[in-house]
Specification:
Number of strands: 12
Mean pLDDT: 92
CATH superfamily of the largest domain: Glycogen Phosphorylase B
Order of helices and strands: HEEHEHEHEHEHEHEHEHEHEHEHHHH
CATH topology of the largest domain: Rossmann fold
Strand content: 5-15%
Number of helices: 15
Strand order of the largest sheet: 9-8-7-10-11-12
Helix content: 25-40%
CATH architecture of the largest domain: 3-Layer(aba) Sandwich
Low-confidence stretches: 393-397
CATH class of the largest domain: Alpha Beta
Shape: elongated
Number of domains: 2
Largest sheet: 6 strands, parallel
Radius of gyration: 22 Å
Structural class: alpha/beta
């Protein structure tokens, strides 16, 4: 259950439904809102009997927290799940899912891909969040690389940790047949919003065009900054930059297959699933060190390079370093990307979840004490994704 289950979640859930069914476990999907999401360009149009949207024509801002709670509880009372899997308790889905689970003595698994050190809250707010979060039964993170930030707050003695939900359908992006190399193209994929920091990439590319006459930068994606970025590229006289605009999802693999490397200078990414896609397509990746995915998927000098996105000269250097590699070294980076991303697969996700389910079967659901129970019952969660596309200052910046 989550506020919405669009885009990347779709294929995950279809896989998990079949995977768990083979283990005699039924999976149901519950979305809360049909509108108000960064992903509401992907409408709720599913006909599966096991997949519902509670408010298909509403955003949370059009509803009271009591309306949301009543409908969530009614749906959960109807399904009667043994385990609820939902997002962080800062969202309606997590807060209300945990409340229902504790009320009905059922297990609760929370998924999260934001590192605690990146989210600054005052002492009181963080304390309340911690009191509530400690009442979950299991925590689903992208990878064990997240552990230090979470185990400092939520001990593994009291919460079961599982990993690997931030995956894509690797087979969908895998190149079929002999792979052509040396396309002389580097690709950047993403929504054109401030936090993607594409302007710094364009400034760095000016240097590339002055020192290399063969490579083209392909910027795939749409967004409010597209006209401004095109104008900026013209103003600094870039000749080998292609803006594709919006591209249908089923066309993205072919664009990736036509490039030699993927680059993103983003200023903040809680994970960055486009990195999974690029690596599944066999691309070396040049990534900002503000990608949480970089800590798990990028091995500097092995399958790409990492850089400080605020430092244009450093972006220039990493681009030149890659461009100047001999083709066998680029091919080795490509092979390394494929090998690394193979461990972040749908199969791995399913096995991690199955292991968690089997573990929870051996333990009773938690029974909160008086203060945690009171806090859980007073907290409804919220739904604020308006900040997702804005620039966040990470520690040290």
């Amino acid at each position: 259950m989550h506020n919405d289950l669009r885009v990347y979640w779709r294929r995950r859930l279809l896989y998990l439904r079949d995977f768990l069914k083979s283990k005699n476990i039924s999976l149901y999907a519950v979305e809360l809102f049909g509108k108000g999401s960064p992903y509401d360009f992907d409408p709720f149009n599913k006909s599966e009997s096991w997949w519902d949207c509670l408010f298909p024509d509403n955003s949370n801002s059009e509803l009271s927290k009591y309306q949301i709670k009543d409908k969530v509880f009614a749906k959960l009372d109807e399904i009667k799940p043994d385990i609820i899997i939902a997002g962080s308790i800062v969202f309606y889905s997590g807060a209300l899912g945990l409340r229902w689970a504790r009320k009905n003595q059922k297990h609760f698994i929370m998924f999260d891909d934001a590192k605690p050190s990146w989210v600054k809250r005052n002492f009181v707010v963080q304390g309340i969040k911690d009191v509530i979060t400690r009442q979950i039964d299991a925590l689903w993170l992208p990878s064990a690389e997240y552990d230090p930030g979470y185990t400092a707050l939520y001990s593994k003695k009291n919460i079961y940790y599982l990993y690997g939900y931030n995956c894509v359908d690797n087979d969908l992006f895998k190149f079929k047949g002999p792979k052509k190399t040396n396309h002389n193209k580097i690709i950047c994929v993403g929504r054109l919003v401030p936090k993607k920091n594409v302007r710094n990439l364009l400034e760095a590319w000016k240097f590339i065009e002055e020192h290399d006459n063969s490579n083209t930068l392909v910027i795939l994606g749409d967004g409010p900054l597209l006209p401004e970025l095109k104008a900026f590229a013209d103003s600094i006289k870039l000749n080998r930059v292609v803006f594709t605009g919006a591209v249908a999802n089923d066309k993205i693999p072919s664009y990736l297959h036509g490039a030699d490397a993927f680059i993103s200078p983003s200023l903040y990414e809680s994970w960055g699933l486009v990195v999974n896609e690029a690596m599944a397509a066999g691309l070396p990746v040049l990534l900002s060190d503000k990608f949480n995915a970089a800590g798990t998927l990028l091995k500097d000098g092995v399958n790409g390079y990492v850089f400080n996105p605020y430092d244009v000269e450093e972006i220039q250097k990493k681009l030149i370093d890659f461009i100047n590699l001999p083709q066998p070294a680029k091919d080795l980076m490509s092979a390394n990307s494929l090998a690394i991303i193979a461990g972040m697969s749908f199969e791995h996700m399913g096995n991690e979840l199955l292991a968690a389910i089997k573990f929870l079967e051996t333990r009773p659901p938690k029974r909160p004490g008086l203060l945690p129970n009171l806090t859980i019952n007073l907290w409804y969660g919220r739904y604020n994704t308006t900040e997702w596309d804005k620039i966040r200052q990470s520690p040290g910046n």
